[in-house]
Amino acid sequence: MRQWARLVLAVWLCVAAGAAAGCGTSRAGEPADGRIRAVATTGMVADLVRNVGGGRVAVTALMGPGVDPHLFKASEGDMARLQQAQIVFYNGLHLEGRMGDILEKMARDKPTVAVAERIPEELLLMAEDGVPDPHVWFDVSLWMLAVDIVRDSLIELDPAGRSVYEQNAAVYREELAELDRYARAQLNTVPAGRRVLVTAHDAFGYFGRAYGIEVRGLQGISTATEYGLADLRQLVDLLVERQIKAVFIESSVPRSSVEALVEGAAARGHAVAIGGELFSDALGAEGTPEGTYAGMIRHNVDTIVAALR
Ligand SMILES: [Zn+2]
């Protein structure tokens, strides 16, 4: 093929494949606009990197609204995005249970940061089998530690941006400190006897520990393990004995499991309402308040408080 024909073909392929394929690259691994190209797994991690990275970092989230990270498998497009990233952020602690090998492979080529795994171990919750609970974002004060981890990782990759990352991290930490106070104050308005949060899976352990609410999930800390009839019966017993008013569905878990709880309680003569939808392992739709981490936490707090108070 002649030189000019090759060029035309290359340009055409770029237009067809779009920016995600890495066209318009000025230097290897750098977007044409000079921003750092970061890929994050969950929406929560992506939002964190966006807040700290500001205008210096272009962030792509692999998992959209309603996507369950425990069950998520990377597509070919996701693999391409990971390969073209200069830095990869993920939650870790096996939240992304089916991406372990891929993330390990990425770590050989580029900074690949598991934010939850850099939180001091003594602050983590352990499940019954000694496995750490990965849902650290539900304790806002723990997520503030993740802000520092992202800041330091970006500074290491892009030292010229140090002052920007430090400034952004400080501002965002303030916002999260305010959010932490809000959550605590709101949940304190629920009478102590009614502070029981029943959901589809055990995502809210850190939330319960931080804000003083007992949490019970039908499935364990991973949705990869199915629940059994014994789990269902135990939770129905709890609903009936404690006269719990409401249970909650999760945006990233099918609602049928929670509906089974409502039916089970009804069969025993106890009416339980569905208190609303919580965002547990995924953010809400982009452009809505729940499409950000802070909005997601606020939505959950308000929904829980309204249903249980
Ligand atoms: Zn989960």
UniProtKB/TrEMBL annotation:
Pfam families: ZnuA. PROSITE patterns: PROKAR_LIPOPROTEIN (PS51257). It comes from the Bacteria. The keyword Transport applies. Keywords: Metal-binding, Signal, Transport. Gene3D superfamilies: Nitrogenase molybdenum iron protein domain. It is found in: Cell envelope. Residues 1-21 form the signal peptide. InterPro entries: AdhesinB, Bact_metal-bind_prot9, Lipoprotein_PsaA-like, ZnuA-like. Belongs to the bacterial solute-binding protein 9 family. This is Manganese/zinc/iron transport system substrate-binding protein. It comes from Symbiobacterium terraclitae.
